[in-house]
Amino acid sequence: QVQLVESGGGLVQPGGSLRLSCAASGSILSFNAAGWYRQAPGKERELVASISSGGNIWYVQSVLGRFTISRDNGKNTVYLHMSSLKPEDTAVYYCTVSHYWGQGTQVTVSS
Hints:
Blueprint: E1 4-7, E2 10-12, E3 18-24, E4 34-39, E5 46-51, E6 57-59, E7 67-72, E8 77-82, E9 91-97, E10 100-101, E11 105-109
Parallel strand pairs: 2-11
Antiparallel strand pairs: 1-3, 3-8, 4-5, 4-9, 5-6, 7-8, 9-10, 9-11
């Protein structure tokens, strides 16, 4: 059974930074795409960033230039580095690898 464990969420002031990590059990990351979704209260879940097995990257427009997705296949870990955070980035962030989902980690941007 594959498990994805996210970490790195928390409370940060506007303009601050956080790095989310998603550790996968088993060596599934090397051959699969990965991504980060988020869901804010009262809103639909949206794809924030994705990275293919070949390294192709996509970002939703609202995070371009502020968020960076990366992967370390040796550590079976996907990262989302978030900078210049805004209150509207507040959400539960979920990682995905292939069709597997993590449990989510809360990110709150507030002064």
